[in-house]
Amino acid sequence: RSTRVPVGEDQVLHLELAQDIAQHFNKKYGEFFPVPKAILSTTKKIKSLRDPSAKMSKSDPQKLATVNIADSPDEIVLKFRKAVTDFTSEVTYDPAARPGVSNLVSIHAAVTGLSIKEVLHQATGLDTAHYKMVVAESVIQKFSPIRNEIKKLQEDKSHLIKVLEDGAEKAKELAAPI
């Protein structure tokens, strides 16, 4: 019964299919399903750290291409240190001409909530090597509370089982009338 669904740009077609199905079903059988609307973030796509022409993906075989929420700070620093950029040291945003550096700027903006312009202003005077570490630190700060909570939850197996059982019960109650 979702009315708003946060999706990445690459998932919009799937949501449009769900909208079409809901509309056709509702037209034939009466108002039953809400027609979900997409919630898109300002950051459309995060690109691979190793190939900025491709989307960052969990299935990428290159381990250094993707940052995972559960990565340790050392792993995150390594991935950003090895991120593909170019030989120009100034930090600028030009996705066509400088896709690697522009990807770092996009990631930095996404994790800090700042605009591209604000991120570029903060990066004034930094070369790309130093900027990579600024971005890595911003990602580490953003992911740290999540990573800590995951670790805490993984250590308390009985709590996880209880949450799953409670969730299953609530789902059954909500689904039964439908």
TrEMBL record:
Question: Which InterPro entries does the UniProt record give?
Answer: aa-tRNA-synth_Ic, Rossmann-like_a/b/a_fold, Trp-tRNA-ligase, Trp-tRNA_synthetase
- Top EC class, one word: ligase
The molecular function GO annotations come to: ATP binding; tryptophan-tRNA ligase activity
What Gene Ontology terms describe where this protein resides (cellular component)?
A: mitochondrial matrix
* Entry superkingdom: Eukaryota
Q: Name one GO biological process term.
A: mitochondrial tryptophanyl-tRNA aminoacylation
**Transmembrane domains' residue ranges:** none
Gene3D superfamilies the UniProt entry points to: HUPs (3.40.50.620), Tyrosyl-Transfer RNA Synthetase (1.10.240.10)
Presence of keyword Ligase: yes
State which Enzyme Commission number(s) the record gives: 6.1.1.2
The record's listing under PANTHER family reads: TRYPTOPHAN--TRNA LIGASE, MITOCHONDRIAL
Q: What is this protein called?
A: tryptophan--tRNA ligase
Organism expressing this protein natively = Hypocryptadius cinnamomeus
What gene does the UniProt entry assign to this protein? Wars2
